[in-house]
Specification:
With 349 residues, the chain is of the alpha/beta class. The protein has 2 domains: 154 residues, 3-Layer(aba) Sandwich (Rossmann fold), CATH 3.40.50.720; 182 residues, Rossmann fold, CATH 3.40.50.720. The chain has 10 helices and 12 strands. A 7-stranded parallel sheet has the order 8-7-6-9-10-11-12, sandwiched between helices. A 5-stranded parallel sheet has the order 2-1-3-4-5, with helices on both faces. The radius of gyration is 22 Å and the shape is elongated. It starts with a strand and ends with a helix.
């Protein structure tokens, strides 16, 4: 009669019982009435029936589809580590009366810091200067001057939790800050010292553009060839959100033809990126494997956030940070929460 929590198989190293991310401290779930286990397979997608007799599942990389939810009669919460949920069938979760939670409080500062690191690396031409030093090309350094940030213009595509944190972190650099986000509150943007603009106007003015919005049907290829041509030839693009927000073929062309000056990408349209992708041959792009924000802090905070929501559900309470808020009105969801609480209470007696 316990509250049963499953973890996707990618939490453990292959053929090992060792955790991939030891900073995610799952021992906080080791309380009376809660039981945890690792799914034995489904590294790419959780299979049908794997979530039977499961009350909550913690997900790293695998897809959660409608098929994944088949037989999950007790499942109340899908807790995704991170903030992206494009690999989760949200309507299927809502229809089944299952809450999807994410961990925005865990990634806000680490991702914003990663974005700032990319901005500074581009501005100071860090990768190029690293190569000059390693190759003994010191005499060439006058040819590769960096860019001072004071008085330059930073544009954000999206101003949710991460965008807000970026504005706070970049404030000491005294940049002009612009935001393009149809859902942003103009007063909040102004309070953070930024200006709210339509996307084309922001792209035309910005010296650096950071993408920090969610991937949706509306934002897929939001930055396409037309958008890239609006940018200054001296401008740089940074993507710490999701790869498909940018048309990667168009971006490669823009970098090859110097339509824009450079880019820093932590995400790609297809991951892992093909080692033979022409994008990787370019000197004016910095790349990282969708892990620039991976720090001990980020995984500790994401774990704490996800597990707090799971423990709340085990007590019959709705978790924080629910993506599909409509599920709160679902009688099926409320019944599952009540059943979870009853089982845990009985186990605790």
């Amino acid at each position: 009669m316990t509250f049963r929590v499953a973890f996707t198989a990618d939490f453990l190293k292959p053929d090992s019982s060792d955790p991939v991310f030891p900073d995610i401290d799952a021992t906080v779930l080791d309380v009376v009435g809660v039981e945890r286990r690792i799914l034995t397979d489904g590294v790419s997608e959780i299979g049908a029936g794997q979530l039977a007799d499961t009350d909550a599942v913690v997900v790293l990389g695998p897809t959660v589809s409608a098929t994944s939810l088949e037989g999950a009669e007790h499942l109340a919460v899908v807790a995704r580590i991170g903030v992206g949920y494009d690999a989760v069938d949200v309507p299927a979760c809502t229809q089944a009366g299952i809450a999807l939670t994410i961990t925005p409080d865990g990634v806000r500062r680490p991702v914003a810091s990663a974005a700032l690191a990319s901005l500074l690396a581009l501005a100071h031409r860090l990768p190029l200067k690293d190569r000059l030093t390693r190759q003994g090309r010191w005499s060439e350094k006058p040819q590769h001057m960096g860019i001072g940030l004071r008085g330059r213009t930073l544009g954000l595509v999206g101003m949710g939790n991460i965008g807000t944190e970026i504005l706070k972190l970049v404030a000491p650099h005294e940049m002009t800050t612009l935001v393009a986000d149809p859902f942003a509150d103009a007063e909040k943007v102004s309070d953070l010292g930024a200006h709210l603009l339509e996307l084309p106007a922001m792209l035309e003015q910005a010296d650096f553009v950071i993408i920090c919005c969610a991937l949706t049907d509306q934002t897929h290829h939001l930055i396409d060839a037309e958008a890239l041509h609006l940018m200054k030839p001296t401008a740089h693009l940074i993507n710490v959100a999701r790869g498909p927000i940018v048309d990667q073929v168009a971006l490669t062309t823009a970098l090859q033809e110097q339509i824009i000056a450079g880019a820093a990408l932590d995400v790609f349209e297809t991951e892992p990126v093909d080692p033979d992708d022409p994008l990787l041959t370019l000197d004016n792009v910095i790349v990282s494997p969708h892990a620039l924000a991976w720090t001990d802090e980020s995984f500790r905070l994401m774990g704490e956030s996800a597990f707090a929501g799971i423990l709340a559900a085990s007590q019959g309470k709705a978790p924080d940070f629910i993506v599909n808020r409509d599920v709160l009105d679902s009688a099926h969801f409320q019944d599952r929460l009540a059943a979870c609480a009853r089982r845990r209470q009985q186990e605790s007696r």
